[in-house]
Design goal:
The complex is a heterodimer of chains A (about 325) and B (about 170). Chain A has about 325 residues and is mainly alpha-helical. Chain A is built from 13 helices and no strands. Chain B has about 170 residues and is an alpha+beta fold. Chain B is elongated, with a radius of gyration of 27 Å. Classes of the chains: A mainly alpha (about 325), B alpha+beta (about 170).
Chain lengths: ~325, ~170
């Protein structure tokens, strides 16, 4: 077999593994989210299907799969059905360059970080298409919000990532992890605390999670961009949202929290543990903070995060030159 | 100057986010306040305003304390209660021993006492104004049905076969 063939087989295996990982994780994450919501509100959460409600999300997935996909009369059929696919398809690619363990990387690539940042932008386009194609006022308002939000928050996120790559001199995620040590004081989070903070806030905003879930905003826009979607159309948006959460938390783990590095346990478990802690924090945020107003959202971005990230980058560059 | 002070306030405002996280964090680990409904029930059901019920008289549980004075029906703001007086034959002055015992039994009482739960607003005016305290809210939380007709209760019949929700 030639090198290309091996590479092809490897990529196919990686994509299938990523799809499996996503499916299992999302089912577990939705369950976790509901349990967190329940316990924060001092109720048990899902409890009836399976032991402690473990099979609740499986039941919901079956329900979503078996529902009829409906299209509103005035909707653009091509864009309407393209949007959920466009939202979910790139997310599998995003998982490939992430180093889940010392040798557990789906697709070793020098510009892994750039690949993730580039393809995560497709999600915004998908939301925009969904809003436009639905021919619904709530959907288009949600889409408009999501575009304004994503364009705004992408910039400080990029600048925060840039500051870390400055100090390490690489865009390869595996190498970035390898440069950090097993203990917290070896992690990039120690040298770049502000970048970590900015990255995490922007990550929450980029994945449209509370308190930045304005594109969905149940109480104002019924369901925002996915108002008109039923069955698996909605299911794919849902999958994409949770996969994006997994991706931003994985990148955060690799960039700032030492990735798979850790004492005693094998690397994969450390990576998973760190990622899930971040996901839990995101859920904790969701059930704590109320949704922001749209002007507050943009003010926070343009007046705080952007100047702070620029200052952080300049400071980093200054210190890199100095020492 | 103003802008600087505003910025300072905003930064201090971050502390409130930490406070919020602390509250939800402690709530996450504190005891749950809801119960698994069909298998368990809360303790303070007595305070629950379920559908109305007639209070049985202490001597005869099948007989209500109600004297059919119609106060409840006339105070009810939604007209959920209908009371029809019992028709009692006029007692004769002279008679046998049997008639005398019949005299002892209360002559006033409802012949029919219907209560439409779908109209009831649970204001409690009926129970409050009842001169005999013959009406009360049952603590029954399990009122479910598939038809409106199921909620037109005949309270006298209910009194005869008094049964609380079986699932509890």
């Amino acid at each position: 077999m030639s090198f290309d063939e091996i590479q092809l087989i490897r990529t196919i295996i990686a994509v299938v593994a990523a799809a499996l990982f996503v499916a299992v994780s999302v089912i577990f994450l939705v369950y976790l989210e509901r349990k967190v919501a329940g316990h924060v509100q001092r109720r048990p959460g899902p409890f009836e299907v399976g032991p402690h409600g473990m099979l609740q999300t499986v039941a919901d997935a079956i329900k979503l799969l078996s529902k009829q996909p409906l299209k509103p009369d005035g909707a653009d059929p091509f864009l309407f059905w393209l949007a959920p696919v466009a939202a979910f398809a790139p997310t599998l690619l995003l998982l490939l360059p992430i180093p889940f363990g010392p040798i557990l990387t789906g697709f070793e690539v020098n510009l892994g970080l750039l690949l993730i940042l580039a393809f995560s932008g497709v999600n915004v386009l998908a939301l925009c298409l969904a809003g436009w194609g639905s021919d619904n006022k709530w959907a288009i308002l949600g889409a408009a919000r999501s575009v304004a939000q994503a364009v705004g928050y992408e910039i400080p996120l990029l600048l925060a990532v840039l500051a870390v790559t400055f100090t390490n001199g690489t865009l390869n995620l595996s190498e970035l992890v390898a440069r950090q040590g097993p203990y917290p004081w070896h992690w990039n989070f120690m040298t770049q605390p502000l970048a970590f903070f900015i990255y995490f806030v922007c990550a929450v905003a980029e994945t449209n999670r509370n308190p930045f879930d304005l594109p969905e905003a149940e109480s104002e826009l019924t369901a925002g961009f996915h108002t008109e979607y039923s069955g698996m159309g909605f299911g794919l948006f849902f999958l994409a949202e949770y996969t994006n959460m997994i991706v931003v938390c994985s990148v955060c783990t690799a960039l700032f929290l030492g990735g798979w590095q850790g004492p005693v346990l094998p690397g994969f478990w450390w990576f998973l543990a760190k990622m899930y802690v971040l996901l839990l924090v995101m859920m904790w945020f969701r059930w704590t903070f109320p949704r922001m107003r749209f002007d507050q959202l943009l003010n926070l971005n343009w007046k705080w995060l952007l100047p702070l990230s620029i200052l952080n980058l300049m400071g980093t560059a200054f210190f890199m030159k100095l020492f | 100057m103003f802008a600087l002070r505003k910025m300072g306030e905003d930064v201090l405002g971050l502390w409130s986010l930490v406070k919020g996280l602390k509250i939800t964090g402690t709530l996450f680990f504190s005891k749950q306040v809801t119960v698994h409904y069909p298998r368990a029930s809360v303790e303070n059901l007595a305070t629950f305003r379920g559908p109305l019920e007639l209070v049985p008289s202490p001597e005869d549980p099948a007989r209500p304390l109600c004297i059919a004075c119609m106060t409840c029906a006339s105070t009810c703001p939604t007209g959920a209660i209908t009371v029809i007086k019992k028709k009692v034959p006029k007692p004769e002055i002279e008679g046998s021993d049997e008639d005398k015992t019949a005299l002892k039994a209360p002559t006033k009482g409802p012949g029919k006492f219907t209560y439409d739960y779908t109209l009831c607003c649970q204001c409690g005016l009926c129970a409050e104004n009842c001169p005999k305290e013959a009406l009360r809210f049952s603590g029954n939380p399990c009122s479910a049905g598939t038809d409106r007709k199921e909620f037109e209760f005949d309270l006298l019949k209910k009194l005869l076969n008094d049964e609380r929700c079986q699932t509890l």
